[in-house]
Amino acid sequence: LKEKVPNLDYLDYYDFKIKEDNIKDYLNLIKEAKNNIKIPVIASINCVCSYEWSFFAKKIQEAGADALEVNLFILPSDFSKSCDEIEQKYFQLAEKIKENLNIPVAVKISYYFSNLAAFIKKLSESGIQGIVAFNRFFHPDFDIDNFTIIPSNVLSRSSDLAISLRWTAILSGRLGCDLIASTGAHDGASVIKLLLAGADAVQVVSALYKHGVNYIEDMIIDMKAWMSKHDFEKIDDFKGKMSQVNSPNPAEYERVQFMKYFEGKKYDLG
Predict the structure, then answer these.
(1) What contacts 235, CB < 8 A, 6 or more positions away?
(2) Between 266 and 115, whose confidence is greater?
């Protein structure tokens, strides 16, 4: 192989140099943000290997970040690994990154777990300060003319809110750390719903890519109008009002059978 690729010895260097430059740029971004804005700066990293990213996390703290979100996703497609092995990897990664940091750490996860509620409950008691539910990952699609794999739905859609809403409501009031809702929040109404479900905070990303950063102002205006309409002075007045622990009918959050729910009822499904 070296005969065909003379510079093979330098490939590892190039890969390291690219990674090093990207890390440097990100750390500079954190420093600039801290110097120019008055709100907390929460950094975020995607993490698979605890060795490299624990070092990077330390650099992020030194750059001035007020908190760190660790975005974890291990696709459960390894047929040789048990669910316990995969879940343990999450605890190991979170512990490794947390042990050398003084700033709050939140872990962003997916919903691909055999017992999601029990896993999140255990993770919330591991010493982290927040759980972000849920992360959004690459979905493959097929180009049937060129026989290639292409991205599908890179940005979230408003219909994605349903999963986040259900699990926010189920988990709220039952964890050992803050609960941050993510995925599907595209307007003021969806943020209100997640707060009603009990979220301590809500992440909005795809909507800003679509409409621009100033769209946040529109969402806040809608939220304030709704709060005024219902005589709420602050978010704490309604946060968690519709969570499962506060619901008169908790079973509503656990219905999974379509026909069971719609039996004997008429709804416009258009």
Answers:
(1) 195, 227
(2) 115
Say how many domains are in the chain: 1
Cα torsion angle, 42, 47, 49, 52, sign = negative
The domain that holds 80 is classified in CATH as: 3.20.20.70
Residue 4 forms part of a structural domain? no
DSSP 154-196: -S--GGGHHHHHHHHHHHTTSSSSEEEE-S---SHHHHHHHHH
User: What would the DSSP string read from start to end of 26-78?
Assistant: HHHHHHHHHHH-SS--EEEEEES-HHHHHHHHHHHHHHT-SEEEEEE---S--
CA-CA-CA-CA torsion for 105, 170, 193, 104, nearest 10 degrees?
-10
Q: Is residue 120 within a helix (H) or strand (E), and if so which, with residue range? A: helix 116-124
Domain containing 116 equals 40-260
Q: State the DSSP code for 258.
A: H
* CA–CA distance, 107 with 123 (Å, rounded to integer): 9
pLDDT digits over 79-129, tens only? Answer: 888 999 999 989 988 888 888 899 999 999 999 998 999 999 999 999 999
* pTM of the predicted protein model: 0.85
